[in-house]
Specification:
The chain is α/β, with parallel strands linked by helices. The protein is built from 15 helices and 13 strands. The strands form two sheets. A seven-stranded mixed sheet has the order 8-9-7-10-11-13-12, sandwiched between helices. Strands 3-4-5-2-1-6 form a six-stranded mixed sheet, with helices on one face.
């Protein structure tokens, strides 16, 4: 469908700072509608002061009109901005006037959708618009800005180019089975495959970091009753958010608190103590604790250092599905152990005292490391869960392609590479088979 042939005009309203109201039109009738409302001729990229008139030539409001002629606009279509006073009633009247002249109310996200369909943005950039608006920290906003500027898309394209070269090589070899040379066993093919697999793995790792920037890090505080989980939450939050008593089972529901560490939002979740109980309310709290652990990026496993071995043994099953665990030996002041940290087979163990605030600098540093925050830099870009999932599928298909090549199954390897290429294309919205055909025909002398 030719987007530019549509006669519909999309309208969106938004409030800007300093009491300014902005009404946007996009589509082929935008200029005509704006000129009817203002009674003036408007030309591209020139700010025009005007009174906005209704059908009876009565003044609705006054302000400025700015016209951006397509394709040199955000959506790629003719776009007009009418900047008026921010009174909602006046904006509504102005919007009704536009609709009476042939416009319709824009759907949520339709301006950016049109920008994507008109190839002003790819899909990852389009999503970054929403990510930039909803960014919860300075670091997340910077990362979203880089994705909007095309950094993530550029990295995907670089990996995609290597994948295209692999596909060209293998599919061309399959087209000439009479050749005596075994192209599928050539060292050059293996070298290219390994290079693409490495680049894909690096991109996946960076996308996972970008997802953490966007979504934050979900950290669940878990442990038996009365080991100091709520004290830990209060100490990390810097205020008394959770009730702390000596009575086991005080916390019976999930309590959330957000903190910012190195520009990344970390959601701390305090949960009910994990134990067997006949108390109906406490049992429900424990069930909710298990649900939180199933979604956790990281668990802070709090244990009483005076009975550490038994506490660790009791917690292992509940934490089995958590990707990363920090074992916190709380109450080290009572066990007479100094603040310390030690790497064991089951992860890092840290000794601290939530009551006295001992060992919390070490905990913050280890939290940065385990959550991957230390690896974030000025070049980080934002990514979404679907991007990470697509990269995982692309990487898995690439691994299967390598396996099939080991068995000299070129056709199966080619299919896996196609699947990998398709998964990458889902990220940016570019999945054009014709581009691959063009590469094949220009790279090899096939028409003999």
């Amino acid at each position: 469908m030719d987007i530019h042939a549509e006669t519909i005009v999309a309208i969106a309203t938004a409030k800007a700072p300093a009491g300014i109201g902005i009404l946007r039109l996009s589509g082929p009738r935008s200029q005509a509608i704006a000129e009817t409302i203002t009674g003036k001729r408007i030309i591209p990229r020139v700010v025009v002061y005007a009174r906005f008139l209704d059908e009876e030539k009565e003044v609705i409001d006054d302000g400025v009109a700015i016209f951006f002629a397509g394709p040199h606009s955000y959506t790629g279509e003719d776009v007009v901005e009418l900047q008026a006073h921010g009174n909602p009633y006046l904006l509504m009247q102005l919007q009704k006037r536009c609709m009476a002249l042939g416009a319709r109310q824009a759907r949520p996200g339709e301006f950016t959708e049109r920008a994507f369909l008109n190839e002003k943005l790819d899909l990852a950039q389009a999503e970054a618009v929403a990510d930039l608006i909803s960014a919860g920290s300075e670091a997340a906003a910077r990362a979203a800005r880089r994705s909007l500027d095309g950094e993530f898309s550029k990295r995907v394209h670089e990996v995609e180019q290597g994948l295209v070269q692999l596909r060209v090589y293998i599919e061309a070899a399959l087209d000439f089975p009479e050749e005596e040379i075994d192209f599928l066993a050539a060292p050059e093919l293996q070298s290219r495959l390994q290079r693409v697999r490495h680049d894909m793995a690096v991109l996946l790792e960076e996308a996972e970091r970008g997802k953490r920037l966007l979504d934050g890090v979900h950290v669940v505080i878990a442990g038996a009753p009365n080991v100091g989980k709520s004290s830990l939450l209060n100490r990390l939050a810097g205020e008394e958010r959770a009730i702390v008593t000596d009575i086991a089972g005080t916390t019976r529901d999930v309590l959330r608190e957000s903190i910012t560490l190195d520009g990344v939002v970390i959601t701390l979740v305090d949960t009910a103590g994990l134990r067997e109980t006949d108390d109906v309310v406490e049992r429900e709290g424990i069930k909710r604790a298990h649900r939180e652990l199933a979604e956790a990026d990281l668990a802070l496993a709090v244990i009483d250092d005076r009975s550490a071995d038994e506490s660790i043994r009791d917690l292992r099953e509940s934490l089995a599905g958590v990707p990363q665990i920090l074992w916190l030996h709380n109450k080290c002041d009572l066990s007479a152990r100094p603040v310390a940290q030690e790497l064991r087979e089951d992860g890092w163990h840290l000794w601290l005292s939530a009551r006295l605030g001992l060992g919390f600098a070490e905990l913050a540093e280890k939290l940065r490391e385990v959550a991957g925050l230390k690896e974030l830099d000025a070049g980080s870009f934002s990514a979404r869960a679907r991007h990470v999932e697509a990269l995982i599928r692309a990487s898995a298909a690439l691994g299967l392609a390598e396996e099939q090549l080991g068995y000299k199954q070129g056709e199966l390897a080619a299919q896996e590479l196609r699947d990998s290429h398709h998964a990458l294309g889902e990220i940016t919205g570019h999945m054009d088979a014709d581009a691959l055909l063009g590469k094949i025909f220009t790279s090899f002398c096939i028409g003999k």
